[in-house]
Design goal:
Blueprint lengths: L12 E2 L2 H6 L3 E2 L12 H12 L22 E5 L10 H6 L6 E3 L17 H11 L2 H9 L2 E3 L3 H4 L11 H11 L4 H4 L6 E5 L6 E5 L37 H10 L6 E5 L18 H12 L5 E6 L6 E5 L8 E5 L10 H7 L14 E8 L4 E8 L4 E8 L3
Parallel strand pairs: 3-4, 4-5, 7-8, 8-9, 9-11
Antiparallel strand pairs: 1-2, 3-12, 6-7, 10-11, 12-13, 13-14
Length: 395
C-alpha cells in the first residue's frame, strides 16, 4: 500500500457483529451515509492512505536469508504464539540448530481486544508487542524464516474472505515481515520457495487458507455433532478454500521440478477426528487438493499444519499415495490447553501416529538424502522430543 498525501479525513470505521457476518461496513460519524452503497475497498482505501500518514507500522528486525542453493537437512515449524506469553520456546527451537524456521500462522494474536475499528489497532499493537520481545528479536536475526498467516493474525477467529479489512491486515503483515515482491503483488500471502540443487531440491509451498476462504457452516440449532467441534461440512459447489487464482498458482507450482515437496497449510488437512476448522469442512476442496498433490511432477511430499493448539503426526490412505499421505501438526508454541494424556484421550484419531501433543510444541523435519527419507518430530517447546516418525519417500 503506497503512501499518498493525506486529506483532512479522520472518520472512524467500525465493524458491527452483523457486518462481520455479512461483510458490510458500518460507518461512524463524519462519513456520508450514502457512501454505504460503495464497495468496501472504495471506502477504505482513502482512509488507509490517510492513516499511514499518522502512524508507523511495526517492522520486524531484518533476518538472514537461506541461500537458494542450500541443501536442506533440518528445519523447524511452529504456530500459535501469544505475544504476551512466555517466549522461551525460541531458544528451544534454536537448540535444535535449524537451517530454516517456518512460522505458519497465528504468529501473533491480534484480535483479542479488537474494538471493531477498521484501523486494526489491536493487530498492530500485537506485532509491536512481539517486536519488543528480546527472544523473538534474537531468533529473527539468527535464523532464516518463512511466514504465512492464520486466523488470529489475519483478522478474527476462524475468519475468511468475508473480513472487510483484510487488505489492510495484509499490508500490516507484509510490512512487518518485509514480504518479498511476489507476495506483495498478489491478494493473499501464499508463496513458494525452492532450495538445493537437482537431486536434493526441496520445494516449500505455503498456502493462504484465509483471504479467499468462503464462510464455514454452522449446524442447525440443537444439532448434536458426532465429534468435538463447531461446524459441519460444506458440500456445496460454492465452497472455496483457496480461490481460483491461488488454485491455478498451486497447480503450476506442483509441476515445477523438486525431489521433496513440503506443503504448508495453516489448518489441518488429513484429520476427520474433529469438526473444528480444517479441510474436512470442505470435502470437495480437500479432494481437489488430494488430486492436485497426486498429480504433482514427481518428488516426495509431506504436509505441515498448525492452528489446533495440539500437535501430532498423521498418516492417511489417499488415492495416488502408495505409502499414504503424511502430515505433521505443530501447535501451539506457548498456548497449550491440555496435557498430552488429556489431549490424546479427548481426540481419538485412527490416522494419528502416536500421541496427541497437548504441551507447548514445535515441529522438526530432518532429511536423509542418501536414504530418500525424512523424520518428523514434534518437540516440546524446550526442544525435547515428544513423538517422532520416519517417512520413506523413495517408493
Amino acid at each position: 500500500m503506497t503512501r499518498h498525501p493525506g486529506h483532512d479525513r479522520r472518520h472512524f470505521l467500525s465493524l458491527s457483529t452483523t457486518g462481520l457476518v455479512s461483510g458490510a461496513v458500518a460507518l461512524g460519524s463524519g462519513s456520508a451515509q450514502a457512501a454505504t452503497s460503495l464497495a468496501p475497498a472504495a471506502l477504505l482505501d482513502p482512509y488507509y492512505r490517510d492513516l499511514e500518514q499518522t502512524i508507523a507500522l511495526p517492522v520486524a528486525p531484518p533476518g538472514p536469508q537461506l541461500a537458494a542453493d542450500s541443501v536442506l537437512t533440518r528445519f523447524s515449524v511452529g504456530s500459535c504464539n501469544n505475544q504476551e506469553g512466555d517466549q522461551a520456546f525460541w531458544q528451544g527451537i534454536r537448540s535444535r540448530d535449524p537451517q530454516l524456521f517456518l512460522y505458519i500462522g497465528d504468529c501473533v494474536y491480534g484480535d483479542p481486544g479488537w474494538d471493531g475499528g477498521a484501523d486494526l489497532g489491536s493487530l498492530r499493537r500485537a506485532y509491536e508487542y512481539l517486536n519488543g520481545r528480546a527472544e523473538f528479536r534474537d531468533f529473527r536475526r539468527a535464523v532464516p524464516m518463512l511466514t504465512v498467516w492464520d486466523d488470529h493474525d489475519f483478522g478474527f477467529n476462524d475468519g475468511g474472505a468475508v473480513f472487510p479489512f483484510k487488505r489492510w491486515s495484509e499490508h500490516i503483515y507484509e510490512t512487518f515481515w518485509n514480504a518479498p515482491d511476489d507476495v506483495r503483488e498478489r491478494e493473499g500471502v501464499y508463496h513458494a520457495r525452492t532450495y538445493g540443487p537437482p537431486g536434493r531440491r526441496v520445494q516449500i509451498i505455503l498456502l493462504d487458507t484465509r483471504f479467499q476462504r468462503s464462510d464455514l457452516v454452522l449446524p442447525p440449532v440443537g444439532t448434536k455433532l458426532p465429534v468435538r467441534g463447531r461446524y459441519v461440512p460444506d458440500t456445496s459447489a460454492g465452497a472455496s478454500m483457496l480461490g481460483a487464482v491461488q488454485w491455478a498458482w498451486l497447480e503450476r507450482e506442483l509441476q515445477k521440478p523438486a525431489d521433496l515437496r513440503v506443503l504448508v497449510s495453516s489448518i489441518q488437512l488429513l484429520s476427520d477426528a474433529h469438526l473444528w476448522e480444517g479441510w474436512e469442512l470442505m470435502p470437495g476442496e480437500r479432494d481437489r487438493l488430494y488430486d492436485a498433490l497426486a498429480a504433482r511432477a514427481g518428488g516426495g511430499l509431506v504436509v505441515l499444519s498448525g492452528d489446533r493448539h495440539v500437535g501430532g503426526i498423521y498418516r492417511k490412505v489417499v488415492p495416488g499415495f502408495a505409502q499414504g499421505l503424511w502430515e505433521m501438526t505443530a501447535s501451539s508454541l506457548n498456548r497449550p490447553n491440555a496435557s498430552n494424556a488429556e489431549a490424546t484421550a479427548r481426540e481419538p484419531d485412527p490416522d494419528r501416529q502416536g500421541i496427541c501433543v497437548g504441551d507447548g510444541n514445535f515441529g522438526e523435519v530432518t532429511i536423509d538424502w542418501e536414504r530418500r527419507a525424512l523424520t518428523l518430530t514434534v518437540c516440546r517447546s524446550d526442544g525435547v522430543d515428544l513423538v517422532s516418525h520416519a517417512v520413506d519417500w523413495s517408493a
